[in-house]
Write a structure and sequence with these properties.
ATPase_NBD; ROK; 9 helices; ROK family protein; globular; 314 residues; alpha/beta; single chain
Length: 314
């Protein structure tokens, strides 16, 4: 992982918990990340919240032992799913297995530190606002487009959370009926969600289903579209149309100054950003056209956001 800095302030511990791995680091008083690492998320078993906090305590112990001169004043960690950050509750996480788990209280007791808890993408969005692609704006929508589509909203420079339920842009319905007979049943159980058409995972899956080929992710499908593959071109065109429709709706409702796009699909570069800008502009009339900009912090954003939130407690 690329080492990054968050500026001067109190030393803090930070953790970014995912279903596959956990990113962790100790940030010193200069804001430099020490001992940044990525370790597998252990099987969480029948007591997922307790098991996770035990793992964070183990990682904390390793980081403190390696850097005994850096004494953290607080800790921050971020998790996926529905998160009520104000209450410190992991409301629901299908891939990690908890429901209404008092994550912040468990971590504070185990690590013996003040603890900040937040949603992973919302925290990454906060880091983009403070350090990355959204620095110049206070009214911002952030989309992370990869296997699925996750989102976060900042209004007046403050994350809008709605108790953890805001920002589920990937699960906004954009289709009433399946194009060309395709089933658009989402993993969430709903039908026609944005991420069933416009996520990197969906683009690759749809191409494989129609051709029998196994593309090396969405970027290969996009390259095939540019080379004249008719199936790839149609799938990519439908993804861009769905994404521009969703962004037009967000623009009409929220009036964001900027929409920041990160995740694996953002690596498509101009093939994504130029097309989205053009198609979004074509859907708008009197609305303020938001700037469409790439995220800048990459995979480190969630961890940096966790550290920034921990700093707020120190």
């Amino acid at each position: 992982m690329t080492l990054r800095e968050i500026g001067r302030g109190a030393p803090v511990l930070a953790f970014d918990v995912g279903g596959t791995d956990i990113k962790s680091g100790l940030f010193d008083a200069d804001g430099t990340a020490l001992g940044m690492r990525r370790t597998p998320t252990p099987p969480l078993g029948s007591e997922p919240a307790t098991t996770l906090i035990d793992e964070l305590a183990r990682l904390s112990g390793e980081l403190r032992a390696q850097h005994p001169d850096v004494v953290p004043a607080a800790g921050g960690f971020v998790v996926p799913g529905i998160v009520d950050a104000a209450a410190g509750i992991g409301v629901f996480a299908s891939n990690l297995g908890w429901r209404d788990a008092p994550l912040r209280a468990l971590a504070a007791e185990r690590l013996q530190l003040p603890i900040a808890l937040d949603h992973d993408v919302r925290s990454a969005s906060w880091a983009e606002h403070e350090l990355g692609g959204a620095r110049a704006h206070d009214d911002v929508v952030v989309l992370i487009i990869g296997t699925g589509i996750a989102g976060a909203i900042l209004i007046g420079g403050v994350p809008y959370t709605a108790g953890g339920y805001a920002g589920e842009i990937g699960h906004a319905p954009i289709s009433e009926g399946p194009p060309r007979g395709e089933a658009l049943l989402c993993t969430c159980g709903a039908y026609g969600c944005l991420e069933t058409v416009a996520s990197a995972g969906a683009i690759a899956r749809r191409y494989a289903a129609e051709t029998g080929a196994t593309p090396d992710g969405a970027r290969e499908v996009i390259a095939l579209a540019g080379a004249g593959d008719a199936v790839a071109a149609r799938i990519w065109d439908e993804a861009l149309d769905a994404l521009s429709l969703a962004l037009a709706q967000l623009t009409a409702v929220l009036g964001p100054q900027a929409i920041v796009i990160g995740g694996g699909l953002s690596r498509a570069g101009d093939a994504l950003f130029d097309e989205v800008r053009t198609r979004l502009a074509g859907r708008l009339s009197f609305h303020r056209m938001p700037q469409i900009v790439p995220a800048q912090l990459g995979d480190d954003a969630g961890l940096l956001g966790a550290a920034l939130h921990a700093r707020e407690l120190s």
